[in-house]
C-alpha cells in the first residue's frame, strides 16, 4: 500500500494558510480540509446552545459527534468563532475526539492537503510534505482586517491585531498540541510575498518532498 499523499500546512492565525492550502490541493487534485473549521464548528455549536466553550465535557461531546455537514454553518468566520475555536482547541479531549475525523478524511481518497496548527506535529507526524506558513503579526493583522472589510464586517485594525496576538499566545502556549513548527517542515514566510509568490514557493517545496517520498 502506498502512503497517503498528505500535505500538512501549519502556521499562526491569518498567515495565508487557507488560500495556499486550497490552491495546492486544486493543483495536486487531492481533497482539502481546513481543520480550523472543526474547532470553529465545535465552538459555535456550544455558543448557539448557550454553553461555555470552556466547558470541557460539553465541548468533547460536541466534538465526538461532529459531522462534515457542521462545517458548512454560516457563522464560522468572525471574531466570536475565532475566540470560541481557540478556547475549545485548548481542551485535550476535544483534540483527541477530532484526530480520527482528520485521519479518516485524508485516508478516504489516498491523500489530502490539511491546514491547521498541529497537522505536521501530531495528526500526521509522518506526512511526506510539511509546510509552516507564517508572516509578521502586523502583516497578518492587516490581511485579516482587509478580509473582514471585503466581507462587509466592520472592525478596526488595532482590535484585529490585538485579537490575533491573543490567539497566537493561546495557541502557542497551551499544554496540548501547541502551535509549533515541525522539525522537518519547510518554512514559508509570506511577509514580503504576493499570494502567487507564496504559492510558487510552497508548490516547489511540496513537489520536492513528494518526489523524495515516492
Ligand atoms: O484562519 P485562522 O488562521 O484565523 O484560524 P483557523 O485556522 O480557522 O483556526 C481557528 C482556531 O482553531 C485557532 O486559533 C486554533 O486555536 C484552533 N486550531 C487548532 O488548534 N488546531 C488546528 N489544527 C486548527 C485550528
Which descriptors apply to this entry?
Rossmann fold, 5-stranded parallel sheet, 214 residues, binds cytidine-5'-diphosphate, alpha/beta, 9 helices
SSE-based structural type: alpha/beta
Q: What is the top-level CATH class?
A: Alpha Beta
Give unreliable regions as ranges.
none
Strand segment tally? 5
Oligomer state of the chains in this structure: single chain
Number of helices: 9
Q: Sheet with the most strands? A: 5 strands, parallel
Q: Sum up the overall morphology in one term.
A: globular
What is the chain-wise order of helices and strands?
EHEHHHHEHEHHEH
Describe the protein's topology:
Blueprint: E1 5-10, H1 17-28, E2 32-34, H2 36-48, H3 56-64, H4 79-88, H5 92-108, E3 111-116, H6 119-123, E4 129-134, H7 137-150, H8 157-173, E5 186-189, H9 195-213
Parallel strand pairs: 1-3, 1-4, 2-3, 4-5
Helix pairs in contact: 1-9, 2-3, 2-4, 3-5, 4-8, 7-8
The chain binds cytidine-5'-diphosphate.
What does this structure look like?
The protein has helices at residues 17-28, 36-48, 56-64, 79-88, 92-108, 119-123, 137-150, 157-173, 195-213, and strands at 5-10, 32-34, 111-116, 129-134, 186-189. With 214 residues, the protein is of the alpha/beta class. The chain has one domain: P-loop containing nucleotide triphosphate hydrolases (Rossmann fold, 3-Layer(aba) Sandwich). Helix 3 (56-64) runs parallel beside helix 5 (92-108). The two termini are 12 Å apart. It binds cytidine-5'-diphosphate. Cytidine-5'-diphosphate (CDP) binds next to helix 2, helix 4 and helix 8.
Amino acid at each position: 500500500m502506498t502512503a497517503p499523499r498528505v500535505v500538512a500546512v501549519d502556521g499562526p492565525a491569518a498567515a495565508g494558510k487557507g488560500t495556499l492550502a486550497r490552491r495546492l490541493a486544486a493543483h495536486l487534485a487531492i481533497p482539502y480540509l481546513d481543520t480550523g473549521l472543526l474547532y470553529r464548528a465545535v465552538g459555535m455549536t456550544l455558543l448557539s446552545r448557550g454553553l461555555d466553550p470552556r466547558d470541557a465535557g460539553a465541548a468533547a461531546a460536541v466534538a465526538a459527534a461532529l459531522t462534515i455537514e457542521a462545517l458548512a454553518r454560516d457563522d464560522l468566520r468572525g471574531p466570536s468563532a475565532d475566540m470560541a475555536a481557540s478556547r475549545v482547541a485548548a481542551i485535550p479531549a476535544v483534540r483527541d475526539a477530532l484526530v480520527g475525523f482528520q485521519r479518516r478524511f485524508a485516508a478516504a481518497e489516498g491523500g489530502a492537503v490539511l491546514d491547521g496548527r498541529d497537522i505536521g506535529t501530531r495528526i500526521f507526524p509522518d506526512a511526506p510534505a510539511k509546510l509552516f506558513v507564517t508572516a509578521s503579526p502586523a502583516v497578518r493583522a492587516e490581511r485579516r482586517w482587509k478580509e473582514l472589510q471585503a466581507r462587509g464586517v466592520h472592525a478596526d485594525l488595532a482590535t484585529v491585531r490585538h485579537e490575533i496576538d491573543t490567539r497566537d499566545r493561546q495557541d502557542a502556549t497551551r499544554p496540548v498540541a501547541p502551535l509549533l513548527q515541525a522539525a522537518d517542515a519547510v518554512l514559508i514566510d509570506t511577509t514580503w510575498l504576493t499570494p502567487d509568490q507564496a504559492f510558487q514557493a510552497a508548490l516547489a517545496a511540496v513537489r520536492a518532498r513528494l518526489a523524495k517520498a515516492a
